[in-house]
């Protein structure tokens, strides 16, 4: 109920006009969301219980409250506002069916447009760990998301095979992303079916790179002459690991141990000049790296601009992408949790919701780090995630004053308990507990026979046995 002294606003606005995403609304304000909806022609043509802007915030909240039901996500968005705004009229929570229809009307395009407009590199000069000699460290990598096992998702995404003749348990969406290493901010993404190659998806990320970036990539991408050339032509410097069988002739040796080489061309494409850094890891605590030679091809041809040993050390920053994936797929979504959406359009919409929400949390964490002169690694993602959730439940709407006060409280809370400086550690690729003794669900179990009678109709009492 409204508190004493609160009255309903005199204008004709609806309660849902003030729904926002708590302190994360600073990254995705109503003006940006409305512009994305307008740009994708998804604005509603009549007044609805679930207008387009509310549905966008709802999809973002689905990622923020991944363990809540559809209806509970709506309650988290609006119940606090009914107190803070002074509304006295009751707003009925839409049914699950109404929410699904509203999401289907919206589609993934507005969420994709929100991501494209808002998600840019975060680090400034106050975050020196995000740069190397003036270059902004970026990385590209790929991953997959398990999606619900429905005929539509199976047809739209496909699924990997297994060692047996059957296929894996769930269809999978493939994603390739571009991320800022120092802040874990995802600034570019491309999605596709499981059968789509990572190199093909990565090609659409070229327009997200810019001069002043140093893009790191593993050998899965380093084998593509075309992809290497496309990213280089966009103005970014590259440092990509090459495959073991890549032919890299020595054209000139440099004092730092690197050498000038070229990526082989053909009659239709000229050879591409690169500088190669070959190195090994001399560390008894890294047995998995022993007797492994790493070869990096970089577009930075001047050894004085980027010495070989420094480039080799910076290549390890590529693993920050894996930490970012852990934040999205384990902490935000929940460990081993399958996405909710039953059709490909809903899946893409949901994935962009996760990416936008993760970026907004990372923007908040970067602000905390820069304000305190800290490395962003010292700021806890899970602590920031919990604070963001509470700000939504508290009903922090679109009011500038309320947003400023809530932001100060959240920043103070996150800053109160920082993580220790990152330590050297490693772990084997094993699990403490093996899988269940139950058999895996395969094709025969997907078409399992279903009961035809209720128990009371199926009971057949047997006569007592004769003595």
Describe this structure in words.
This protein is α+β, with helices and mostly antiparallel strands and 467 residues long. Helix content is 37%, strand content 13%. Helix 5 packs parallel to helix 12 (344-371) and helix 13 runs antiparallel to helix 14. Mean pLDDT is 87; it is low at 1-8. Strands 1, 2, 3, 4, 5, 6, 7, 8, 9 and 10 form a 10-stranded mixed beta sheet that branches. The chain starts with 29 loop residues before the first helix and ends in a 9-residue tail after the last helix. It is built from 16 helices and 10 strands. Strand 1 (131-132) and strand 2 (135-146) form a beta hairpin. The protein folds into 2 domains: 1-118 and 380-420, no CATH class; 119-324.
Secondary-structure topology with pairs:
Blueprint: H1 30-39, H2 52-64, H3 70-84, H4 96-106, H5 109-118, E1 131-132, E2 135-146, H6 151-157, E3 172-180, E4 185-193, H7 198-202, E5 213-217, H8 219-222, H9 225-233, E6 237-241, E7 252-253, E8 259-263, E9 272-279, E10 294-298, H10 308-315, H11 320-332, H12 344-371, H13 381-393, H14 400-416, H15 443-446, H16 455-458
Parallel strand pairs: 2-5, 5-6
Antiparallel strand pairs: 1-2, 2-3, 3-4, 6-10, 7-8, 8-9, 9-10
Spell out the helices and strands N to C.
Answer: HHHHHEEHEEHEHHEEEEEHHHHHHH
N-to-C span: 71 Å
Strand content: 5-15%
Helix content: 25-40%
Largest sheet: 10 strands, mixed
Count of domains: 2
Query: Average pLDDT across residues?
Result: 87
Total strands: 10
The radius of gyration is: 26 Å
User: Tally the helices: what do you get?
Assistant: 16
Structural class by SSE content: alpha+beta
Low-confidence stretches: 1-8
């Amino acid at each position: 109920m409204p508190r004493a002294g609160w009255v309903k606003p005199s204008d004709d606005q609806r309660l849902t006009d003030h729904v926002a995403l708590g302190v994360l609304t600073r990254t995705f304000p109503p003006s940006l969301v409305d512009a994305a909806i307008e740009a994708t022609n998804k604005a509603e043509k009549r007044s609805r219980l679930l207008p387009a802007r509310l549905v966008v915030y709802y999809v973002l909240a689905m990622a923020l409250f991944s363990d809540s039901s559809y209806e509970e996500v709506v309650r988290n968005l609006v119940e606090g506002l009914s107190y803070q705004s002074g509304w006295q009229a009751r707003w009925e929570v839409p049914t699950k069916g109404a929410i699904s229809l509203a999401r289907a009307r919206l589609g993934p395009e507005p969420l994709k447009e929100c991501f494209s407009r808002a998600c840019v590199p975060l680090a400034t000069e106050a975050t020196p760990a995000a740069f190397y000699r003036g270059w902004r460290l970026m990385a590209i990598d790929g991953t997959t998301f398990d999606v619900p096992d429905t005929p539509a998702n199976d047809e739209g995404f496909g699924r990997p095979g297994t060692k047996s003749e059957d296929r894996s348990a769930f269809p999978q969406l493939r994603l390739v992303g571009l991320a800022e290493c120092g802040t874990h901010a995802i600034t570019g993404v491309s999605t596709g079916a499981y059968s789509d190659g990572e190199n093909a998806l990565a090609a659409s990320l070229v327009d997200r790179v810019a001069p002043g970036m140093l893009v790191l990539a593993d050998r899965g991408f380093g084998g593509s002459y075309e992809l290497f050339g496309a990213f280089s032509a966009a103005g970014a410097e590259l440092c990509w690991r090459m495959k073991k069988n890549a032919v890299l002739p020595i054209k000139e040796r440099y004092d730092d141990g690197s050498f000038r080489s070229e990526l082989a061309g053909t009659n239709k494409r000229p050879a591409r000049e690169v500088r190669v850094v070959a190195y090994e890891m001399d560390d008894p605590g890294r047995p998995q790296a022993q007797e492994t030679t790493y070869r990096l091809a970089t577009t930075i041809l001047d050894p004085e601009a980027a010495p070989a040993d420094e480039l080799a050390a910076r290549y390890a920053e590529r693993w920050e992408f894996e930490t970012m994936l852990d934040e999205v797929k384990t902490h935000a979504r929940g460990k081993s949790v399958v996405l909710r959406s039953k059709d490909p359009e809903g899946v893409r919409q949901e994935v962009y919701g996760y990416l936008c929400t993760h970026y907004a949390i990372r923007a908040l964490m970067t602000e905390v780090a820069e304000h305190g002169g800290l490395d962003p690694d010292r700021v806890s993602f899970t602590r920031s995630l919990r604070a963001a959730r509470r700000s939504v439940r508290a009903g922090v709407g679109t009011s500038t004053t309320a947003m400023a006060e809530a932001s100060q409280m959240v920043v103070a809370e996150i800053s109160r308990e920082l993580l220790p400086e990152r330590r050297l550690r490693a772990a084997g690729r094993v699990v403490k507990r093996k899988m269940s003794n139950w058999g895996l669900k395969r094709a025969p179990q997907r078409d399992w026979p279903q009961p035809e009678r209720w128990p009371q109709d199926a009971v057949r009492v047997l006569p007592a046995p004769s003595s």
